[in-house]
Amino acid sequence: MGKLLLIGTPVGNLQDLSHRALDAIRTCSLLLCEDTRHTRKLLNHFGVTQKLESFHEHNEDARVDQVLDRIAFGEVIGLVSDAGMPVLSDPGYILVRRARERGVVVEVIPGPFAAAMALAGSGIAPIPFAFHGFAPHRKGERGDFYRRLAASGMTAVVYESPQRVVASLQDALEVIGDVEITVARELTKIHEEYLHGRISEVIESLSAREAIKGEITLVFAASAEKAEETPADLNAEFRRLRENGMRRTDAVKLLSDRYRLKKSELYKLLLDE
């Protein structure tokens, strides 16, 4: 039986390619990729020979039916993006949706995801969070983008280019306020960096650099202006978080961020109830 394989690939360090992903790349009949030149370098590193065909935002619509027809006739076809997981801010959504509609088997072979890595290393409350993909290029659209982000009241993860990151942060500062942020740059690569502080502090630090290079992921704390009202039974919410497996310190951090309470105030409320 044919099937579609969504294969996660490294975002930087090639050693992050899993054994399962490598086996899938070796054994599929065809590997679809954003840039065949980029993927060929990955395959050459592991000594793998595979047939590659381009599949990207400019030809995805036109190629979907052809790919699904081949799978229906028994082929196993893999899909990779240039880095990380396909579909997530990369090509593949239309293909997967149509595959589900046609009853085609879709198998996900997990791999690195920059948004999850940046969130884990940020020190910002991880639950709840929303992944917003790439911020828009134009200033006006970015303003609307950050207003929607602020309205969610959640930790937010955003991708941005090094050329636009300072301007993007300036727009965020105007809309969200001077919340905590982590800028994760060049994840898993030699020059990996986590830059943490208030948005204004990070803007000042980045603006002082001669150049900003590398792939960038932004992790924003929830907007202070959208803090939720403290619930009547804070202890019950705290217990739910603990029962779901969250550590005590992480639960306190999450609640203090969500309701804009100092940790000392939060501990007092928890003890008083």
Give a short summary of the structure.
With 273 residues, the chain is of the alpha/beta class. 42% of the residues lie in helices and 18% in strands.
Describe the structure.
With 273 residues, the chain is of the alpha/beta class. It contains 11 helices and 10 strands. Strands 3-2-4-1-5 form a 5-stranded parallel beta sheet. Strand 2, helix 2 and strand 3 form a beta-alpha-beta unit. It is globular and about 65 Å long.
N-C termini distance: 59 Å
Number of helices: 11
Number of strand segments: 10
Low-pLDDT sequence parts: none
The ordered H/E elements are EHEHEHEHEHEHEHEEHEHHH
Radius of gyration (Å) = 22 Å
- Helix-strand makeup class: alpha/beta
Q: Percent of residues in beta strands? A: 15-25%
Q: Could you report the average pLDDT, rounded to the nearest whole number?
A: 90
Percentage of residues in helical conformation: 40-55%
- What is the strand arrangement across the widest sheet? 3-2-4-1-5
Give the overall shape.
globular
Largest sheet: 5 strands, parallel
